[in-house]
Amino acid sequence: MNFSYIILIPLIPLVVFLLLGIFNQRIKPAVSGYVGVLGLLTSTLLSFYTAYQYFFVYGKANGVYQTFVEKTVWMNFTETLAIDMGVLVDPISVMMLIVVSIVSLMVHIYSRGYMKGDDGYTKFFAFLSLFSFSMYGLVLATNLFQIYIFWELVGVSSYLLIGYYYTKPSAVSAAKKAFIVTRFADLGFLIGILIVGYYTGTYDFEMLNNPEGNAILNWASTSFMGLSVLTWALILIFIGGAGKSAMFPLHIWLPDAMEGPTPVSALIHAATMVVAGVFLVARLFPMYYFVENGFALNIVAYVGAFSALFAAIIAVTQTDIKRVLAFSTMSQLGYMMLALGVSGYDGHEGLGYMASMFHLFAHAMFKALLFLCAGSVIHAVHSNYLKDMGGLRKYMPITNITFLIAALAIAGVPPFAGFFSKDEILVAAFEHNKLIYFVGVFVAGLTAFYMFRIYFGIFWGKETKYEHKPHESPISMTFPLMVLALLSIVGGFIPFSKFVTADKAGFEAHLNYPLAAVAVGVGLLGIGLAWAFYKNENNLADKMVNFFGPFYKWTSDKFYFDEIYLFITKKILFNRVSAPIAKFDKKYVDGTMVGIGNKTVWTSEKIKSLQSGKVQDYAFAFIAGVVVLVLVFIYMWTN
Amino acid sequence: MDILTLFIIVPILTILALVFTKGLKQARIVSLIGSLVQFGMAINLVFAYFKERAVNSDIMVFTKDVVWFKEFNIHYNIGVDGISVALLLLTAIVVLAGVFISWKMNDLPKEFFVSLIVLSIGVYGFFISLDLFTMFVFFEIAVIPMYLLIGIWGTGPKEYSAMKLTLMLMGASAVLLVGILGIYFNSNADGGALTFNILEISKVSIPIEAQKLFFPLTFIGFAVIGALFPFHTWSPDGHASAPTAVSMLHAGVLMKLGGYGVFRVAMFLLPEGAMHWSWFFIILATIGVIYGAFAAIKQTDLKYINAYSSVSHLGMVLFALLMLNKTSWNGAILQSLSHGFMTALFFALIGMIYERTHTRDVTELGGLLKVIPFISAIYVIAGLASLGLPGFSGFVAEMNIFVGAFEHEDMFYRVATIISVSAIVVTAVYILRVVGIMLMGPVKNNAFLTLEKVTWYEKLGIMLLLIPIVGMGVAPLWLSDMILESLHPFIQGVL
């Protein structure tokens, strides 16, 4: 099968971006919306066609899914190292094509209603297309450098879209923060790439990931400070992934990123871009698993588990619904990371890998749905805060039902999508690492609790006095909600273990009933607590706040991580490094040069009787300088 | 007339024509025609070069040799390889863009354009010379008009800045002259005659002791104009006072003379000296990279920000040259080109903003994206290019530099490389800071609401510079391969 037509999937959004970007002023908003949706619809259809062809027709040979690569040289570094551009077709890239297509298309449609009447309507669709292009490029990348290139491009799309309301100072600083934090993480990624390139002589995923290839077999050949250089590289690459996927402690940009328009949060900061880090680890999974017996993979597991827990705790106390969802995203990303971290490679051992990808898929559907519902609510009440909401179920029936479906899905209630993926993650954790399993179970309970906290807070509870009567959103916005809700219901029944596995061979996965029962029980417990606290107005919640006292305060202030970062950047880098350097430059470096000049003038003043006129003065200075330098070098040379 | 000498003749003819013009309109149309012709010649040269290269495998093509000072064996000896072709193209584009940007130069227009074109003669001559002495003469021709251009048409403390810039560059020239003479007097080491001819000297094995002595002199002599730390301080003041087109030309082209000279003279002719001294200059270059970036964070004057940014970016050029391998050298040349287009674009945009708002202080500006969207959007793009976003030239250059620098395995090189790589984060900080303060946010001053829209000549100038940045960034292969191929003969010396 020739998969080279796949190049069109990213190229169409790119063309749309260029069209809308260049003719920004001349295109009518209505037209640009259609162009955007149409472009993405084409890419989506192509993606589904590819998925069908790959998974059901051409992909398998001898029971193993094959990897198809089409590529061309983009730039040569040395005789052996080059950056290629191309498309790589394997189970995870095809799965990601589907995820990106579905969510992006739904967000495009939704935005036509949500952004209606906005000044930058055309610009918005241009940026959405730019993002879609970059994300497609990222998932199709054939080598580390290509993925890095698109990695940066999704980063800049995210910057542009977070800062979309650019006259709002909070949006500007959130955009800046997101870019700089992820850029800092990318520094690790880049150095990791340089190390891999130097020590293995290739950036190519196929070569790197081959369990019988040189890169993996020779991992022990060079070591640095007790660890293989490749382990260091993988840790550094994981730092890049952790930055994009908002893992602790590089998570601080994600909550602020909610300053962007809500459809953007759904697309970029919930469903697609933020899973790039998970995707990256999955993409290099054989390396993570085989090099140094999975040392780097263990780090992934623990960072993932801690982030899942940390974010879930914070999510309980936030009052801005988008921030609750942001921390929830971080927590679920931690889930995916920990699943990868506890995974093996062959057959059923690779359950964690499969579960992680499954959860990525399911999460993309229900989390995008949650955000779009939140957008619909925000659209209706013009506020992000829980205190301005309540009792909305009467006014917004579709949003209510779809939000409920998504919340049940994320809480892991059968038969919704999240139940299956989460159950498999917990089984994988149970089989490999009990500590991580217990963290996972606890987080599952917390997740159910905070999600139903906001559900009850928005749609039930005490009805706020609304200035304008809230109303259901237009069909352009509710249609995507319904589609995603449907996917959140049926998504769990996709037999992922047949399609997306670490060794690409597929295996039979079965529900582990005892563990599933525990997970569901904990989820229902969380929902029950939320029901008791928030369904009707009561003071139970306040009592809990008082009970936890200072711990509650720390949590709602997000454990002061923003303040710590601000201290490091402002107080240390800005005031203690940058400012002194600027001053040093003016005072000493420049001062010395000016001093030399002044000394020359002074000297010439003294010997004015011999020389007059400026030219000679300078000539004297030059010659004097030259003589001194020559003497210095002769001195150094003879020693 | 041969294809290269025309690069000297056409500007001279333009100057002669300019002498007979009256007023701004005539002066600018003559300059425009002159620089358009040069632009056409540069494009033609690229094609001619590829054609010639297919049949001619000499190091230099289109060579020509005329004696002009027999006593000392000084020749007018010219020729180009892929590297000089690329730099000539850069020069032609920046000069043309500079003419567009100076479209409304009301103050002594004739003299202004004459000085500008004299400067370009120096640059063209420098890039085509294969004779050390001729090269040096062109170097001086390029530097001298700066004094007038800043001193007469500048702003702020222009006399001070002009003096400082000229003095420091002249001081460096003096050091350089010693270095060049040192090379000259050793060019008979194999028993031949004394010569300034670069290609001939490259075949001579200059005694190692002499190489060790003259390498630092030659290196510093060139590197001062390439903003080597700690000799970069002429650059912020000089740029801040210079008129827009001069800043563009100076930062865009003139500062490239430094890296080019280091590569063509110091590295090529004194390879042993380069290997002996590289550790020392790597330290200086690495400091320059990170120091320039940190200093840029704290500046408030747009031109100072860009000047320090240049210190950082050009520090990267010197850093890459000192890594002494093909990949990093390729990166150095690409970075020179990329920085040339980018910084010229930045200075052009800063000029446009200054003309409209009469301030370059970022703290007084705000919300420009709302009032002058085109200029602001291009500023954002230029900023993204500057912080090394893929799809723009800076990324291509930096990745070559980093991959090349990573070829060295010992700790010293690794540390220097990682420090340099980390500049990508600091760069993002100062770029996004300016974008955030100046372009985004609410409109700070109601007077900004009536700012003049971008004009056609400004748009042309911008596009001329933007297209190569994007072109290099999207499709780097032909350019980087053209440079790589020309690097073959040079790398042999240091292996």
TrEMBL record, chain A:
Main localization, broad class: membrane
Membrane topology: Multi-pass membrane protein
Keywords: Membrane, Transmembrane, Transmembrane helix
Record flagged with keyword Ribonucleoprotein: no
Positions of the NADH-Ubiquinone oxidoreductase (complex I) chain 5 N-terminal domain: 74-125
Domain NADH:quinone oxidoreductase/Mrp antiporter transmembrane: start-end pairs: 141-445
Cellular location(s): Endomembrane system; Membrane
PANTHER family the UniProt entry points to: NADH-UBIQUINONE OXIDOREDUCTASE CHAIN 5
Descriptive protein name: NADH-quinone oxidoreductase subunit L
UniProtKB/TrEMBL annotation, chain B:
InterPro entries assigned to the protein according to its UniProt record, in alphabetical order: NADH_Q_OxRdtase_chainM/4, NADH_UbQ_OxRdtase, ND/Mrp_TM
Superkingdom as given in the UniProt entry: Bacteria
Keyword Lipid metabolism: no
Localisation per UniProt entry: Endomembrane system; Membrane
Domain NADH:quinone oxidoreductase/Mrp antiporter transmembrane: start-end pairs: 129-418
UniProt main location, coarse: membrane
Membrane-spanning intervals of the chain: 6-24, 29-50, 78-100, 112-130, 136-153, 165-185, 213-234, 246-270, 276-297, 304-324, 336-355, 367-392, 412-439, 460-479
Topological type in the membrane: Multi-pass membrane protein
Pfam (any one): Proton_antipo_M
Keyword annotations: Membrane, Transmembrane, Transmembrane helix
NCBIfam families for this protein: NDH_I_M
Family statement: Belongs to the complex I subunit 4 family.
Protein name: NADH-quinone oxidoreductase subunit M
